[in-house]
User: Fold this.
Amino acid sequence: MKTKLLLSLVAAATLAATSLPAAAQAQPGRKVNRDELRKCLNDGDALRARSDALKAAAEKARPKQEELQAERTAIEDEIKRQESATNQSMGIATGNPRERLERRKRMYEAKVQDVKAETDKLNGEADQLKADLAKYNEGCSGITYDKEDREAIEKERGSKK
Assistant:
């Protein structure tokens, strides 16, 4: 479903964000100073963190979608069973089977709306991540930098942890 597309976008964003700093030194391009390099590295880390969080949220949503699929199948089976049943009297003791089915369908529709809202939110976040990644790529893709600048930044980052 939409979660598979979302996970594909997240995986592509993560791959691009994690590979850019290494690829940047291998290809000649715009030379950046230490501050620009720091910004690119920090932005790349932030994109990775957002991507990981989005991926975790999408994985969390997947069982809900699978549960809804199973419920939909069960409702369809119940509809077929009721349509083919000739003896309507078996529901007298426990209530009208049609009414139970209608309640079940209403509960299912409410769950569908909740999951749809969650999926729409995740898709919006994935679209924003994709846009931010494109912006990141514009500024940080293909850069070159001094090895000493990278080492100094990594040392700063190590001392902050």
Observations:
- The radius of gyration is 26 Å.
- The CA atoms of residues 13 and 134 lie 9 Å apart.
